[in-house]
Amino acid sequence: MFRSRSWFGANWNKPKNKFSLEHMKYLYSVLERNLTVSESNRGLLVETLRSIAEILIWGDQHDSSVFDFFLEKNMLSYFIHIMRQKNGGPSFVCVQLLQTLNILFENIRNETSLYYLLSNNQVNSIIVHKFDFSDEDVMGYYILFLKTLSLKLNKHTIHFFYNEHTNDFPLYTEAIKFFNHPESMVRIAVRTITLNVYRVQNTNMLQFIRDRTAAPYFSNLVWFIGNHILELDSCVRTDTDHQSQSRLSNLVAEHIDHLHYINDIFCLKIDDLNAVLTEHLLHKLFVPLYIFSLTPAPPTLSIATVTQNLAAVLNKVVEIEDIQQEVNNPRVSVVTAFFLLAMVFLVLTHSPLVNTLAWVIFNANNSIFKEGLVKLLDAYTDRKQFVSLGFVEPQESLERALETTLSATSSDTNISTHSEPNPTNLPTGVENSEVNRTDEEKEKMKVPDEQNVTNRPFLDTVISAMDCSDNDYLALLALCLIYAVVENTGVNREWLEKTLNSSSSCGTKCKALLVEKLLKIAYMCSTPSSRIRLVTLELNAILIQRFTRSSNNKYELSEGQHAMLTESRYHSMNVVKFYYKSEDIFLDLFEDEYNEMSKSSLNVEFLCADSTILLPPTGTPLTGIIFTRRLPCGDVEKARRAIRVFLYLRRLCHTIFGEIETLLPLTNQHNCIDIDDVLDLNNSDLIACTIIMKDGQKQRRFLVIDVQQLILVEPDLKRLGWGIAKIVGFLQDTEVAGDKDDTRCLHLTISRGGATRNQTPILSAKLVFDDYIRCMAAKQRLTKGRTKVRQKKMLQIAQILEIKEPNTEGNNAGIATSGRITLREHRPLFSTANRVPGFAAALRLGSMPSAGVSRVQIGNRGSMNCSGDGRNSPSSSSYGRHTPRRDTEGSLSSNTSRPGTRDSSPRTPRPRSEEIPLEDFRRSTSPGALSRSPANTSWRPATPSKLSLEKNNHDDGSGAYGGSIMSEGQDDKIVSSTSEETSFIADEKKSKKSSSIQTV
Predict the structure, then answer these.
(1) Mean pLDDT for the chain?
(2) What is the rounded distance in angstroms from the CA atom of residue 415 to the CA atom of residue 154?
(3) N or C: the chain end with fewer CB closer than 10 Å?
(4) Cα separation values, 640 from 212, 594, 661, 663, Å
């Protein structure tokens, strides 16, 4: 009557709670019934494996009975059984099985559970299984599984992977077989696995690696790196037009990864391992490929070819083994060789390696290719394998070599590391007596006798590359190599100083010759037609300081060197003077270059990581190369380069000569206002405005104009008379324009200075003022403030360039021509001593010469309205830093010298005596003047409307505004200096004085 339960499938007995022991038992039953993989049950097995991993991780943290059941039923053996089936071998099930194991070992936290999983050698059985690695997913999850296991290695778990009795270590030996896998992620995982293995401090395991795997692994690794270098050099040779920068960049990044991996091995300080790695690097890569490439290339028709042809004609046998070996030895270009050696010294710090390599560069000759480096390495270690010199392919692949060594007899593998080497393994020219040396002999080997060193071809190649007659292509990389050697912490300081003070091939001391070359580069860089890049000059300046600095941190130069450096500085100064007179944007360029130079110092390791320095210098920015690492393009970039060269040489001279910089930077950032600074605005000249952003957002602010900055503030509700800076910008980066449709509006743009000048501006918005007069006052102050700031900075630059009479006519409009340079001192921006609202207005009317009351202030004698109502808010109040002063004092509230028409059209600048008297607003109390704000809406006490005017203030014509307080009876006697456009006199007064107004 009822159907069988089997109709509903296996899920009929599936527990509802998947995180329970019952669910684990159910999964076991499913696994047990499907041991044979088929097309029909593959999906079920994959889901079962995934669920087992999920519940095991939960049980490890919440219910130990789940994990106990997994171990009791030995479910891991089921995994191995499924994995070994031919139908299970394909990716569908194996991928899920490896993923399950990886998740399980990665998330398990209980050490006891981990030990149980690793017992019975079942994990090693999975490691040595021959998966189908042609499947990318299988390869990826397999190497990830090995990496996860390596992270679990420590002194307690190492015994589960390394068997001391059988000398078997499958986790390591199987992983290193993929060291040269085409996929970069696999290669990176192999490096991580090896480093995790080396970090375990187990003597027997490390001895096994040293004796059984070190030589095959490192020899094949070095050969792989060398072939990668040949590919890199081929890309450098063919990509002269910068069309393959992406590929070259990837090759350089891969090589840097190789070096850092090698350095990580050295940093573990495993002496036996480091000795083997050092020998293979020196004998199989650095000397036969890097150093050999510094020798002159053989002619097209080599001696070996000629000898072979002659022997064939004469029907004789000629011994040409040495010649043939030299011809067959590959080489890279000198540019690539410099780059490779520089990276070695920048990354590696292992003393035996870098000391030996440095000695070869500075002291060795061509005989090193025949004699080898055994003599040098004797001074550092006795743990050597005496590897033959030459960049050749290993006789066996790594996999084949591992099989050979692992299957060797125990008698062959238990050779002591410290036993005497076989004399037959010594390279050519090395006798048995040279193996054991005294300490004195080793010291002589480290610091060879100066008289015995007569030929230094490798050092001569480096020095000759510093010639920048055509360009700095080779010079930059040669400087990088010199810098890397002298700054490497692994190189012996005492030996290096003695070597630098020894005589070179030409008889001059090496250090003196290097300084001469460096100073010549600096001199050539100061010429207008120089093709030396800025990064080369910066690195050159660093090396000049390095080689001229004595032990007491003082710089020592001869008279000729001192004169040459000084002359370079003045040459660069003369080049900058040309652009000072002719370039419109010279000030912006000068400040940008100084800011960029001051941001950070040169990092040579980062520089060498840039693949573009391997390519010939280019002058087009279309390549994407930053400006300092290419030649200038166009007049603007030529001006930038000239400025930067001058600044570099100026800073270098100050450092070496002990001079103190007093004129730079042009802007002192410490005296500037920052956003959210709380400012004392008592007695400040404020102009109320509404900022309308591009998105329509409106903000009520008050405009304050400082000597160098414009500040938009909002009132501080906690303290009366104080405000908070919300928007801050430099006046010289400000652009202001009127609105044709609304005379109360200004369009304001505040750009970002420095290298970010072309990015989004700080502010680009419309400013709406309460009336036309306030709008014009703001525009005049902004325009004149910008002009004055730029004028002052141009005068500072003229003083830096030692221009006695700067001529700013023509392109630099608005900058005064003056016979002498006078720099005004900055006054403190905000002064709060004995200040109360309205104090400054009374002070100006009562005691100051040429005093005047701001019409904007008198017109709105109420205080700032916190509610943001434009009609009830004053546009200006007295401000200690911004009270009217004479032009020589740098007033913030000074008027522009370029009054225009009502539509903001420019006019001829008027004399100082006819500038607009913005502060002379005494008549604002008369009919027709600006309305006064209601007293009940103010948040500051109102300025007294009537002050004592009995004192006669006479204007001597030299005031900043050319105006003074006048009585009504004096109106017909005084000639107004204001134009019709900006006259603030009431309309009824204009008709009375129209006959006496003069317009310039």
Answers:
(1) 75
(2) 27
(3) N
(4) 60, 10, 21, 19
